[in-house]
Structures are given as structure tokens and as C-alpha cells.
TrEMBL record:
The lineage of its organism: Eukaryota, Fungi, Dikarya, Basidiomycota, Agaricomycotina. Residues 15-120 form the Pirin N-terminal domain. This is Pirin-domain-containing protein. Binds 1 Fe cation per subunit. Its cofactor is Fe cation. Fe cation binds at residues 60, 62, 104, 106. One of its GO terms (molecular function) is metal ion binding. InterPro entries: Pirin (IPR012093), Pirin_N_dom (IPR003829), RmlC-like_jellyroll (IPR014710), RmlC_Cupin_sf (IPR011051). Pfam families: Pirin (PF02678). The keyword Metal-binding applies.
Length: 269
């Protein structure tokens, strides 16, 4: 199966400006519902959030989801019913395996807004005991290369420890990569799986590092290529990738600034 790229423009995502929170929803979430964009494999939520100082998400409950935050800028305070209290900064990834149930809150720490991605996936196994994991990935680890920041806990080299080195463990069929791509640079990514598989899935998202742009054509730009197809992404845009196992996806920075890109390999459900 050749690579098939399907754009997901930022202006077509669900979005809301609550004053204290500015948010975009790649998939159906809260008051936004679109049956054509409700999930992708086990990926259920990709929200890009900006939360003002002194505000945040009050204590609320989750169960049967893997939930993680990827901090772009500012500081995010996490508290939960497992007794965890932590201030997360740029480069930090915090993952809660909600399992049978957990309560948590997230607030902006410090005097500037926090900008982060909130991501959910459906777990591969139900009724897990709740767990908490954190990892840190420096800019240098992502400079013009893919850093594997989240990976299935069953994958080789992934450690199921609360803290440590290597990818953040997730109980789901999702692997997340992040890169800081310099102008003119190109990265390739081989969609995992056997060459004879009929379909594999990936999703690419270009983070809004230049600011909350309300879908405007500004900021960084990358070009995705594969099997003769080409799609351009502006900040906030994403793209679904359908491919056979082993197919190559190219990501090129065609803008003037450093582009922060995340990529998800997703198991086919």
C-alpha cells in the first residue's frame, strides 16, 4: 500500500477561547464533535492547550485512558490522587495510566502561560492499576532527529519506572516522536510493520510555537512527502498518514524558523 497523506488543517479543528484557556482539538472533545475526526487507531485526543497563569483544570476523574502531557513552554503543575505533585517544564513528558480510576488537576505554575499538548490513547489492556511516569527530553536530543518520547511498555528498551531515561511507557499501541527541525533540514521516518501489511497508521502535527494563530498562514512550515504525494503543514496543522509497513515518510522544514514536529505511529485496531 503506497503512502496516503490526508491533511488536517488547524482551522478545521475544534477550538475554543475561554479566556483562561485557548485550545484546539484534533479529535472530537468536550463540546466539539465530528464523526469523521473522533479517533485514529488507539489515539483518542490530541489537544493543543494554552492556559493562563493562576488558572487551570480543577480536580477531575479519569479511567481506562492513557493520558500524557508534552510541555512546549511555561510550567504545568500536576497533582493527583496517587500523591504525585510535580512542576513540569519544557521538554517534560508526564503520563498518567488512569486504569481503574484516578483524579488529577493541572494548573499553570509561574507567571507566564503554559503551552502543552494533551494526548489520550485507549489502553491495550483494561482494568490496569493506575500509574504515573515522567521523562525529560532536552532540545539537543530532538535537534534535527527524531527523539522517541513515548513508546509501548512492552517494546524493547522501554522501562516501566516512574522516572528515568528512555521513552515514557504507555499501555497502548502508540509510539510518539518529537523533533526540532532546522530550516532546510529533512527527516525520514519508516512506517513500522512488515512490507506486506495492507495498512499502517501515523499522524504528524506541527506545533504552534509562534503563538496562538487562529489558523492564520504564519509561522513555521513543513512539507510531508511519500510515494509521490506532498502535503504542506503550517503551524497547528496535522496530517493522517496511511501506509504499508516499511514505507518512507519525509518531513522537510521549508520555513524560516525552527519547526517543532511530533509524529505518532499508531497500531491499526
Amino acid at each position: 500500500m503506497p503512502v496516503h497523506l490526508i491533511p488536517r488543517p488547524s482551522q478545521d479543528r475544534g477550538n475554543a477561547d475561554h479566556g483562561w484557556l485557548k485550545t484546539f482539538h484534533t479529535f472530537s472533545f468536550a463540546d466539539y464533535y465530528d464523526p469523521e475526526h473522533s479517533s485514529f487507531g488507539s489515539l483518542r485526543v490530541i489537544n493543543e492547550d494554552r492556559v493562563q497563569p493562576g488558572t487551570g483544570f480543577g480536580t477531575h476523574a479519569h479511567k481506562e485512558f492513557e493520558i500524557w502531557s508534552y510541555v512546549v513552554s511555561g510550567e504545568l503543575e500536576h497533582r493527583d490522587s496517587l500523591g504525585n505533585v510535580e512542576i513540569l517544564k519544557r521538554g517534560d513528558v508526564q503520563l498518567t495510566s488512569a486504569g481503574t480510576g484516578v483524579r488529577h488537576s493541572e494548573h499553570t505554575a509561574g507567571t507566564v502561560p503554559v503551552h502543552f499538548l494533551q494526548i489520550w490513547a485507549r489502553p491495550s489492556t483494561a482494568h490496569l492499576q493506575p500509574a504515573y511516569y515522567t521523562r525529560h527530553f532536552s532540545d539537543a536530543e530532538k535537534e534535527d532527529k527524531w527523539a522517541k518520547v513515548v513508546a509501548p511498555i512492552s517494546a524493547p528498551g522501554v522501562k516501566g519506572e516512574r522516572e528515568g531515561e528512555g521513552p515514557t511507557p504507555v499501555h497502548a499501541g502508540v509510539t510518539m516522536y518529537a523533533s526540532l527541525l532546522s530550516p532546510g533540514k529533512t527527516l525520514s521516518h519508516a512506517v513500522p510493520g512488515a512490507a506486506d501489511e495492507q495498512q499502517r497508521k501515523a499522524y504528524v502535527h506541527l506545533i504552534q510555537t509562534s503563538g496562538y494563530n487562529e489558523g492564520a498562514a504564519k509561522g513555521n512550515e513543513v512539507r510531508l512527502t511519500g510515494a509521490g504525494q506532498e502535503v504542506s503543514l503550517r503551524e497547528g496543522d496535522g496530517a493522517y498518514v496511511l501506509a504499508g509497513g516499511g514505507e518512507q515518510l519525509g518531513v522537510e522544514n521549508v520555513g524560516e524558523g525552527r519547526a517543532e514536529v511530533v509524529l505518532f505511529d499508531v497500531d491499526v485496531e
